[in-house]
Specification:
alpha+beta; GMP Synthetase, Chain A, domain 3; 3-stranded mixed β-sheet; 4 helices; 3 strands; elongated
Length: 103
């Protein structure tokens, strides 16, 4: 093998390969919902609802300012799930809206 002709592998490619082999691609896709929440749901919802975690089976836990908002968001869940899952490798299967506790 001629070492002068071999190029280093880009770090992003190495990381992608590792995540795929370790079976973590789906989990990273699910977790990215938390970081992208405001862009995915819009400013009005992002102001009253903060995602906390995603379980391994895809349940997103979201803290909501009030019970009425939690009830409203529960009605909007199918539409929100569609937005969250568009183009994502890890699917969110359900959203658990939890009222109260926001500072």
């Amino acid at each position: 093998m001629d070492r002068s002709s071999s190029r280093p592998t880009p770090l992003a490619e190495v990381l992608r390969s590792y995540l795929r082999r370790a079976g973590l691609v789906r989990r990273v896709g699910q977790a990215s919902v938390i970081e992208e929440w405001g862009e995915l749901v819009g400013p009005q919802i992002a102001q009253v609802a903060i995602p906390e975690s995603v379980t391994a089976d895809g349940v997103l836990r979201v803290r909501v300012t009030t019970a009425p908002w939690a009830a409203e968001l529960q009605l909007m869940t199918p539409r929100i799930l569609a937005r969250l899952n568009t183009g994502r490798s890890g699917r969110i299967t359900a959203i658990r809206w939890m009222a109260g506790g926001l500072g």
